[in-house]
Write a structure and sequence with these properties.
CATH superfamily: Vaccinia Virus protein VP39
Mean pLDDT: 94
Low-confidence stretches: none
Order of helices and strands: HHHEHEHEHEHEHEE
Radius of gyration: 15 Å
Shape: globular
Distance between the termini: 36 Å
CATH class: Alpha Beta
Length: 189
């Protein structure tokens, strides 16, 4: 358990973990890792692709409460947005989270040019990961972090992305053997 999480948040996370397979949520250890990484990097403006029922957004939101940052999260399925917002509210992070509904690609295509992120977490349609990366690249600041879940569990679908980022001169990437696999890249310039 994260010591600084209130009882409501801890209980909410435990309940959401029971629906992990149904909602394609990240593992607890991945949530804890993202939370720590965001706090240690003092991230301020985070983008998440794939809100689902809000499980990962709670981990991210709690870290951003400490850093004074904010989260923009994108979800394609309308039926998941209401439960996610309810979970965000229960856990005290709704006030720093903007939830956008729709295609992540379409939303990314229309991001204002000056919109910048220092941390991006992708847990959405695996076959579109390379396109997400191409659209996010100009919006990720130098020194920013790009984390992508399911790179081992969906290896074939994300291979074009892994090949691209692993050979991209602007990024240093590693694949961590967390459950499902997590690609973790820092933008160098």
């Amino acid at each position: 358990m994260i010591e600084n999480f209130d009882e409501i948040t801890q209980n909410t996370l435990i309940e959401l973990e029971k629906t992990q397979k149904q909602f394609w949520n990240i593992s607890r250890v991945t949530g804890e890792f993202l939370n720590l990484l965001i706090r240690e990097n003092k991230s301020q403006n985070v983008l998440e692709l794939g809100t689902s029922n809000g499980y990962s957004g709670i981990w991210i939101g709690k870290a951003l409460k400490e850093t004074g940052g904010k989260l923009t999260t994108v979800e394609f399925y309308e039926k998941r947005i209401k439960p996610a917002r309810e979970n965000f509210e229960k856990c005290g992070v709704l006030d720093i989270i903007t939830t956008l509904e729709g295609s992540a690609i379409k939303i990314l295509e229309y991001l204002p040019e000056n919109e910048k992120f220092d941390f991006v977490f992708i847990d959405a349609n695996k076959s579109e990961t390379l396109r997400y990366f191409e659209l996010i690249h100009p919006h990720l600041i130098a020194g920013g972090i790009l984390a992508v879940d399911n790179v081992l569990s969906h290896e074939a679908k994300v291979k074009p992305f892994i090949d691209t980022i692993s050979n991209h001169h602007d990024y240093k990437n590693v694949v961590l053997k967390l459950p499902a696999g997590l690609s973790l890249a820092r933008k160098l310039r």
